[in-house]
């Protein structure tokens, strides 16, 4: 019913568009992003959809239902990647959904609702330090102030959009009305080891963990690495090192908590100069919002205490926060039926990673289907899935779509 080999071939084709030679890095609104938009638009049209790029840089394909203009079942995932990424995080969900529509189209099957497939432009937040830009625009929660955020070269989001040929003033038009979207379903690789450990090809997501992101700037005093005695230094990097360990230690106190310092920059950055300025990021996640906010508070207190003791000036900027997003039980049941229809065991599991559904949940109930990945590895070039598992995942999604009943949508 779905062409498994084509799913992996298309993931390979998208992965060839990378700024990183010999690997995969594709950030939002880059030339590589433009190239994959063109490919995906072509595949959507080939699958019988009307497809276009929206004002935030999402690729949007629409397959009409039994008559034009019906509310849609929304499917999709993202087309941007982290740095030195794998080929399937995001892309599997876009290509798998197109494959489902291609199957319907090849049978000339129209449903009592439309299907929209979206390749979100930004989910990872690598370029502008804020995530889910594409899905937030669709959900109508895009904050105009974000347009002023700058990338590492000082280019503002508004200018990057214009450079890409998009009009930031049209972003509000990307927002969907609640009644126009019946539900949102996303196919995604698990990005963790649970399904593989249990010998299962797919699993049904119960909820997506919440996250908090911070940027911390420490200012000490740069100086000569040979002349300033240790007790007279205000070394911003040594202070940051203590903060990094505190971030780790706080998360280690609770098995459900994770926290990461994923990026750090020290200035001026020379072997013989005491670092005077450091910035680093903090990412905290948990399946319970109170647990996460307690951890953030503990991290802030540690940063204050470490910087005070070392006579370092510390500034903390909250970057972004999302609460736990539950998947809708009625959609999970329907996914379960689709899994059971293939005589596979039904496994429910939470998602530690963030997904576009977090934003889309503001306008529609959401569901997610995870596909097993090798070694549970993701956000790495070692990310890998089998063609068989991709086919099972897309096949379950297709079953879910074909058995979706519009009268089951809660009012
Ligand atoms: C996205 O992949 C995230 O969870 O950071
Ligand atoms: Mn990711
Ligand atoms: Mn992803």
Sum up the structure in keywords.
single chain; 411 residues; alpha+beta; 9-stranded mixed β-sheet; 5-stranded antiparallel β-sheet; 32% helix; globular; binds glyoxylic acid; binds manganese (II) ion
Structure description:
- It is a single chain.
- Helices cover 32% and strands 22% of the residues.
- It has helices at residues 4-15, 31-46, 91-106, 133-139, 157-163, 194-197, 236-252, 289-309, 329-341, 357-360, 387-402; strands at 50-53, 59-63, 72-78, 114-120, 181-189, 202-208, 210-219, 223-224, 258-260, 264-267, 273-274, 277-286, 313-322, 325-326, 348-351, 366-371.
- Helix 1 packs across helix 3, helix 3 (91-106) crosses helix 11 and helix 7 (236-252) runs antiparallel to helix 8.
- The chain is globular, with a radius of gyration of 22 Å.
- It is of the alpha+beta class and 411 residues long.
- A hairpin with a 5-residue loop joins strand 1 and strand 2 (59-63).
- It binds glyoxylic acid and manganese (II) ion (MN) (2 copies).
- Glyoxylic acid binds next to loops.
- Residues 124, 353-354 line the site of glyoxylic acid.
């Amino acid at each position: 019913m779905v062409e498994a080999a084509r799913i992996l071939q298309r993931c390979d084709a998208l992965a060839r568009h990378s700024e990183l030679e010999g690997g995969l890095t594709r950030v939002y609104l880059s030339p590589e992003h433009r190239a994959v938009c063109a490919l995906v638009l072509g595949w959507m049209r080939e699958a019988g959809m009307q497809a276009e790029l929206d004002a935030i840089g999402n690729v949007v394909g629409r397959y009409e239902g039994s008559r034009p203009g019906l509310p849609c079942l929304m499917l999709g995932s993202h087309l941007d990647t982290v740095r030195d990424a794998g080929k399937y995080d995001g892309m599997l969900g876009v290509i798998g959904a197109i494959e489902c529509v291609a199957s319907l189209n090849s049978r000339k099957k129209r449903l009592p609702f439309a299907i929209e497939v979206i390749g979100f432009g930004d989910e990872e937040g690598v370029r502008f330090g804020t995530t889910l830009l594409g899905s937030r625009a669709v959900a109508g929660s895009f904050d105009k102030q974000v347009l002023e955020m700058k990338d590492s070269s000082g280019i503002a989001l508004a200018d990057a959009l214009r450079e890409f040929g998009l009009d930031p003033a049209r972003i509000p038009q990307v927002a969907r009305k609640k009644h126009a979207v019946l539900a949102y379903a996303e196919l995604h690789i698990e990005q963790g080891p649970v399904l593989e450990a249990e010998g299962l090809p797919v699993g049904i997501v119960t909820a997506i963990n919440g996250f908090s992101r911070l940027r911390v700037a420490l200012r000490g005093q740069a100086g000569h690495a040979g002349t300033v005695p240790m007790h007279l230094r205000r070394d911003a990097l040594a202070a940051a090192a203590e903060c990094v360990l505190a971030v780790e230690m706080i998360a280690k106190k609770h098995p459900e908590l994770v926290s990461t310092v994923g990026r750090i920059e020290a200035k001026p950055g020379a072997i013989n100069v005491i670092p005077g300025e450091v910035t680093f990021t903090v990412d905290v996640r948990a399946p319970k919002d109170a647990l996460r906010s307690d951890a953030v508070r503990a991290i802030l207190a540690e940063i204050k205490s470490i910087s005070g003791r070392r006579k370092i000036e510390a500034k903390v900027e909250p970057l972004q926060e999302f609460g736990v997003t539950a998947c809708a039980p009625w959609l999970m049941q329907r996914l379960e039926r689709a899994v059971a229809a293939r005589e596979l065991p039904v496994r429910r599991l939470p998602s530690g990673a963030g997904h576009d559904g977090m934003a889309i949940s503001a306008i529609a109930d959401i569901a997610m289907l995870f596909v097993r990945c090798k070694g549970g590895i993701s956000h790495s070039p070692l990310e890998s899935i089998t063609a068989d598992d991709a086919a099972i995942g897309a096949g379950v999604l297709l079953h879910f779509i074909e058995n979706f009943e519009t009268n089951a949508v809660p009012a």
